[in-house]
Amino acid sequence: MKYLIIKKIDEEVKRLILDDDVTKKTGIYPYILTRKEKYLSIRAFTDAQKLATYERQGGICADCGQHFELSQMEADHITPWHDGGRTITDNCQMLCRECNRRKSGK
Question: What's the predicted TM-score (pTM) here?
Answer without folding.
Answer: 0.64
